[in-house]
Design goal:
Layout: H1 3-9, E1 18-21, E2 25-30, E3 35-42, E4 45-52, H2 59-89, H3 94-98, E5 101-107, E6 116-121, E7 128-134, E8 137-144
Parallel strand pairs: 4-5
Antiparallel strand pairs: 1-2, 2-3, 3-4, 5-6, 6-7, 7-8
Length: about 140
């Protein structure tokens, strides 16, 4: 059977459910996001820290996540000023933006391992907020409906 036919009709390989990493600790698979992650609390904020891959976390992304984990306290320290700047730029959504809390710090793109997406939870069920984090800078706060 060719590779394509095997992929379509062959037995489906299941993702590894847990991975132990020497720096990140135990990462558990989440079927909804199709990523491996862990819950953590930093600066009185609970969040999920996640890494993607196909059947197990991508090794390049694991390396990036291990590096990023050490930078998370600084990222959280920079977040209030970033959100305040974004709130000033979008006055009609300022109250909502100021209330955002980090839900997930996601290292998901093997072709761009330095590109990190930060997902937020907020008061609105109509909007899912996220921004990017690359080269030590938060950028591009947007929402999806």
């Amino acid at each position: 059977m060719s590779g394509l036919l095997r992929k379509l009709f062959g037995p489906r390989r299941q993702p590894v459910q847990e991975v132990d990493h020497p720096i990140l600790g135990t990462l558990s698979y989440d079927r909804e996001s199709e990523s491996w992650g862990k819950r953590m609390t930093l600066a009185d904020q609970e969040l999920r820290f996640s890494v993607s891959g196909e059947f197990e976390p991508d090794p390049v992304l694991l390396e990036q996540a291990a590096t990023l984990q050490a930078k998370l306290p600084r990222l959280l320290a920079d977040l209030p000023a970033f959100l305040e700047h974004e709130a000033i730029q979008a006055r009609e959504l300022a109250t909502e933006i100021r209330s955002l809390k980090i839900e997930d710090v996601a290292v998901w793109w093997p072709k761009q391992p330095e590109a990190v997406m930060i997902w937020f939870k907020g008061p609105s069920d109509e909007r899912t907020w996220h921004c990017s984090y690359a080269n030590g800078k938060l950028d591009a706060l947007v929402y999806d409906c």
